[in-house]
Amino acid sequence: MDSTDRKILRELQENGRLTNQDLAARVNLSPSPCLRRVRLLEESGVIQGYTALVDPQKYGLPIDVFVQIRLERHGEQTVREFESRVQEIDEILDFYLMTGTMDYLLHIVSTSLHAYELFMREKLHKIPGIAAIETSFAFGRVKRKKTFPPMHSLPA
Questions:
Q1: Is residue 149 part of a domain?
Q2: Which of 46, 69, 134, 136 is deepest in the core (most CB within 10 A)?
Q3: What is the pLDDT of residue 105?
Q4: Statement: residue 48 has pLDDT above 90
């Protein structure tokens, strides 16, 4: 991946609905080579898809919850079952394997505190192998960045 590919990616992260003509102009390429590069980025899995950013409040999901989970055991079967069950739960938007004292971090959305309580009782608590759950509620989002930092601004 070169600097032109990164320019293309930044532009698409800013606006995934750009036409190829507009994208090509923004990255100083002619349309054919620009489209070829975008297709190669898609085929190689660098571009994983396109989506709309939706305001969760306006959608009806005003509650943002971050949940840290520690498993009782780290055996292959326990881990596989836990990860499989979490994959099936729609309210969980993001699911990270972590280092430190907790094993996983989940980002969950909910319509209300009552709905979140039901989610915990009926879905999360029913997954076997959980030793500890620590919940934090977000008061609000301070920053939501949708583009990666330029490579030249990062330490090597």
A1: no
A2: 69
A3: 98
A4: yes
The tokens describing 62, both together, are: 């005003």
Distance CA 130, CA 24 (A): 50
Whole-angstrom Cα distance, residue 108 to residue 137?
Answer: 10
Residue 137: the pLDDT is 97
User: Which pLDDT band holds residue 102 (cuts at 50, 70, 90)?
Assistant: very high
What angle do the packed helices 3-14 and 31-43 form, to 10 degrees?
A: 80
Rounded distance between C-alpha atoms, residue 84 and residue 142, angstroms: 31
- Residue 86 belongs to a domain: yes
Strands (E), the chain: 63-71, 92-97, 104-110, 130-137
Distance CA 77, CA 100 (A): 21
Q: Is 92 helix (H, G, I), strand (E, B) or coil?
A: strand
- Would you say residue 154 lies in a domain? no
Structural domain for 124, as ranges = 56-137
Give mean pLDDT, residues 29-36: 97
Ordered strands of the 104-110 beta sheet:
92-97, 104-110, 63-71, 130-137
Q: Provide the 10 A C-beta neighbour count for residue 89.
A: 15
Q: How far is CA 140 from the centre of its chain?
A: 17
Strand bridging mode 92-97 / 130-137: unpaired
